[in-house]
């Protein structure tokens, strides 16, 4: 390759956008806490992709609620935030605050996207599944809609840890649609927060899921074995990881 051609190729490579990964924290956590929880994945990805961590729009504080159910987040990186609050009244359960979450995500997807993949932990993993369902071509569900038009393709990959499905009856039909998107599912054998069987049920929603079960609880493992699995899964989407081996 001649020098001008090589220079042009290098410039084109440098100008190519990095893959972007949307990162969603668990209940009563925050973007800053999730950065700590997922530090092994952040270290693995390094500068080869941009990991965008979001704060949930609902502040559950010390789990005491006002009459309006929620207060707005304070300027505190360790505020206890959430994507919804599961509220049961009599025989009815509902996801309070999900509308605020979908409004925020619609803005993020339109303004900061497109995102190549999504990483979710616990409630964030449950939300990641809902988003993947909403972005799947032809998706339509009465109880799960963005409040405004969203121009965003389906994710190229999904990574979930401690995932579960939402339980209100009106949402159950969502999981009848198989998700044809590459997925990696991490679940701890001794998870006492989200039972393993609940996470396994969500694996069935995806076509050909990659599963990593580990001897542990409700967290993202920091082991070399976990990193090997994540690296292998991400290589088709972030080829530059190959050079880090």
TrEMBL record:
- Give a Pfam family name: FSH1
Q: Which domain of life is it from?
A: Eukaryota
The record's section on InterPro entries has:
AB_hydrolase_fold, FSH-like_dom, LovG
* EC main group: transferase
- SUPFAM superfamilies, per the entry: alpha/beta-Hydrolases
Give the gene name.
OVCA2_1
Q: Which UniProt keywords are given for this protein, alphabetically ordered?
A: Hydrolase, Transferase
User: What name appears for this protein in its UniProt entry?
Assistant: Ovarian cancer-associated protein 2
Q: Which organism is it from?
A: Coemansia interrupta
Using the record, list the residue span of the signal peptide; answer none if the entry has no such feature.
Answer: none
Q: Name one GO cellular component term.
A: cytoplasm
Reported EC number(s) for this entry are: 2.5.1.108
Domain Serine hydrolase spans what residues? 17-224
What molecular function terms (GO) are annotated for this protein? Answer: 2-(3-amino-3-carboxypropyl)histidine synthase activity; hydrolase activity
């Amino acid at each position: 390759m001649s020098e001008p051609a090589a220079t042009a190729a290098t410039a084109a490579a440098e100008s190519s956008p990095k893959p972007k990964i949307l990162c969603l924290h668990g209940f009563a956590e925050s973007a800053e806490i999730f950065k700590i929880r997922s530090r092994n994945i952040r270290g693995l990805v390094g500068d080869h992709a941009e990991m965008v961590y979001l704060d949930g729009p609902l502040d559950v504080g010390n789990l005491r609620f006002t009459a309006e159910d929620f207060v707005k987040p304070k300027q505190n990186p360790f505020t206890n935030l959430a994507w919804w609050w599961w509220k049961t009244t009599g025989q009815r359960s509902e996801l309070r605050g999900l509308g605020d979450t979908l409004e925020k995500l619609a803005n993020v997807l339109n303004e900061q996207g497109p995102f190549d993949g999504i990483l979710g932990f616990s409630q964030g993993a449950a939300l990641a599944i809902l988003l993947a369902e909403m972005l799947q071509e032809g998706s339509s569900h009465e109880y799960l809609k963005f409040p405004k038009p969203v121009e965003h393709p389906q994710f190229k990959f999904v990574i979930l840890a401690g995932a579960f499905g939402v339980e209100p009856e009106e949402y159950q039909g969502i999981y009848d649609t198989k998700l044809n998107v590459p997925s990696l599912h991490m679940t701890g054998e001794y998870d006492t927060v989200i039972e393993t069987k609940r996470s396994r049920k969500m694996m069935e929603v995806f076509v050909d899921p990659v599963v990593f079960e580990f001897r542990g609880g409700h967290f993202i493992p920091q082991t070399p074995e976990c990193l090997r699995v994540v690296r292998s899964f991400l290589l088709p989407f972030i080829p530059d990881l190959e050079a880090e081996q």
